[in-house]
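User
Take a look at the entry that follows and flag anything odd:
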Amino acid sequence: NRIKKTFLHFSFTGTYSFLLAEVPLLYEAGYSAYFDVVVVVLCEEEMARERSPYQENFSNRMARMWPQENKAMMADYIIKNNGTLRDLHDEARVLYQKLINRGAQT
């Protein structure tokens, strides 16, 4: 419910170009309808496991999520996070520019 409240708050203030929210279970929880654009960040499962701070229950967490392929098919944009942090930063910067340009056109 916090996501919905935050979304509604920022929607009505009109002071931001766009709102960015990290929602791991976005599709699973049915919140995708609240967003104009959905970006899915994909990562190979073994890499995700290595990076996860939740080693002891990683499998349980992953079991609650839809397969990445399903999320990718529904997403407006996809970022692949299989490289370095710098690679991710570069991809995010490119996407940020696309979103800014998209907002300028609407």
